[in-house]
Amino acid sequence: SRDAEGSWFRSLFVHKVDPRKDAHSNLLSKKETSNLYKIQFHNVKPECLDAYNRLTEEVLPKLHSDADYPCDLVGNWNTWYGEQDQAVHLWRFSGGYPALMDCMNKLKQNKEYLDFRKERSRMLLSRRNQLLLEFSFWNEPLPRQGPNIYELRTYKLK
């Protein structure tokens, strides 16, 4: 009878929590938009940073302005603190993962872009990409006239 009383008494204070029905990232991401972001980190050889910046300023805006590619170059910059001689590029894919795949497939056929990648590869020490979903509580990032200072943060959801 004590166990029955304990569980009855405990039931007054313990609330039943429904199990999540979706991944945590999907629960926090925006529902009304289907934008997917790709952030690229390129560690550039120190002696090549100026040439790298000139090359990317020539090629990347062309992809941004070409209506055939479902992507927008939201921003690109070099880091001052943390990783030195690093370039960061932020792309938005309107249409989510299908738009990303469409863009990637088209880039594989773009000779100018393939030549750009080949030349760029000689300037890099390493590179890393991340795909990002928008948080529902954040505003959409918009391109800004520079110079600007940004702080990059990483959050680990538990």
Automatic annotation (TrEMBL):
A GO biological-process term: sensory perception of pain
Signal peptide coordinates: none
InterPro entries: Dimeric_a/b-barrel, NipSnap_domain
Organism superkingdom: Eukaryota
A single Gene Ontology CC term: mitochondrion
Protein's UniProt name: NIPS1 protein
